[in-house]
Design brief:
With 193 residues, this protein is an alpha/beta fold. The strands form two sheets. It has a seven-stranded parallel beta sheet with strand order 5-2-1-6-7-8-9, sandwiched between helices. Strands 3-4 form a two-stranded antiparallel sheet.
Length: 193
């Protein structure tokens, strides 16, 4: 309820509190394929230090393209997942194939206190019970999930948690992404004809 003379917007603004800037923070990316590198470009563009882990990739290089046509080639620092990446990253973004659990209770406990976790890979890659526990006890500041273990019916505790931002696996549901996918498929068909 807003105080006297205060608008509802002012009340929401006060309730939200202060945010955090991404510039100067460390972005840890687990899975450094096509999507992981796309996330690296975004993080780099926001002024973040980019570190990555991928057991199948040793080259951390990626290219950032700017609106004026210029490009910049740079590199993520490739780290081990546990004591290096998880312990140092302010935000961890997961982009791996497969459904095997990669971040269980032990790995989440290794994450930097106050860090954020993003899972846009597959449901089951992050142990949701361990994630909720880390959020409830203040170890993690927040998380964003685009995938769930029990899609399309995620556990109600995930849906109701105030430190979780949730989307229904719609990361590629934009006009532009669908156009790119169509063009990529057509190119593949033509190349294999």
């Amino acid at each position: 309820m807003p105080l006297e003379g205060e608008s509802a917007f002012d009340g929401l603004k006060k309730a939200y509190g202060k945010g955090l800037e991404l510039r100067g923070k460390t972005l840890g990316i687990i899975g450094f394929g096509r999507i992981g590198r796309a996330v690296a470009r975004q993080g780099y563009g926001l002024g973040m230090k980019v570190v990555a882990h991928d057991p199948f990739v040793t080259d951390g290089s990626f290219e950032v393209a700017f609106a004026d046509g210029q490009t910049l080639r740079t590199s993520a620092t490739m780290l081990s997942i546990g004591s290096e990446l998880l312990a140092s990253a302010d935000a961890v973004s997961v982009h791996i194939a497969g459904k095997a659990e990669v971040l269980g209770a032990a790995e989440i406990a290794q994450m930097k206190k106050g860090a954020f976790l993003v899972n846009a890979a597959r449901g089951g890659v992050v142990n949701e019970e361990a994630l909720l526990n880390a959020l409830d006890h203040g170890h993690l500041a927040g998380a964003a999930l685009d995938v769930f273990t029990n899609e399309p019916t995620p556990h109600v505790n995930l849906l109701m948690h105030d430190k979780l931002s949730l989307t229904p696996h719609i990361g590629a549901a934009t006009e532009e992404a669908q156009d790119r996918i169509s063009a990529e498929l057509a190119d593949t068909i033509i190349a294999n004809a």
